[in-house]
Amino acid sequence: MAEHPRALWVLAFVAFIESSFFPIPPDLLLIPMVLAAPRRAFLIAGVATVASVAGGIFGYAIGAFAFDTLGQPILSALGKDAYFAEFAERYNEYGIWVVLAAGVTPFPYKVVTILSGATNLSFGVFVISSLVARALRFFVVAALLWYAGPTMRDFIEKRLGLMFTLFIIVLFGGLYLVRYL
User: Fold this and answer.
1) Is 51 exposed, middle or buried (0-12, 13-18, 19+ CB in 10 A)?
2) Where are the chain's structural domains?
3) 8 Å CB contact between 18 and 110
4) Are 64 and 118 in contact (CB under 8 A)?
5) What is the reported pTM?
6) Which of 13, 35, 81, 114 to pair with 174, CA 20 to 30 A apart?
């Protein structure tokens, strides 16, 4: 599919649905597409970014509108609705960091999009942090593939998620040290 004339549309579709409910990441299309057409690397990353953020907005809407009809009654029946209010407050306090971390790491971004809507995280904060995180993720991959070509493919497929995860751990560790020391 990477060399197909409609490959960008397929990538956009996969990036959109992955951000709200689909389990397969768009990187599986993005990587071979960039390798097949390196001169279009940044266009491909741009399409993945825009579609992913649009899908994230759909996921946010799922959390914002479906949570009240589905999730809230379940929490009330279990006697856990008070706990969710406390969770939502904490989530929103660190929401920008949660969205940024989930947007660049292998953590399922769709979980964060739905939680952001369910907890009423500021929509502007959600969209901006999603845009930054998803652009960082897709443009870094595209730039590495554009620059180093197929030799980077193995590294990206096997270790890029780990590197982003380590970066986020170091970032949060540094923020923790600055705040509490």
Assistant:
1) buried
2) 7-180
3) yes
4) yes
5) 0.78
6) 114
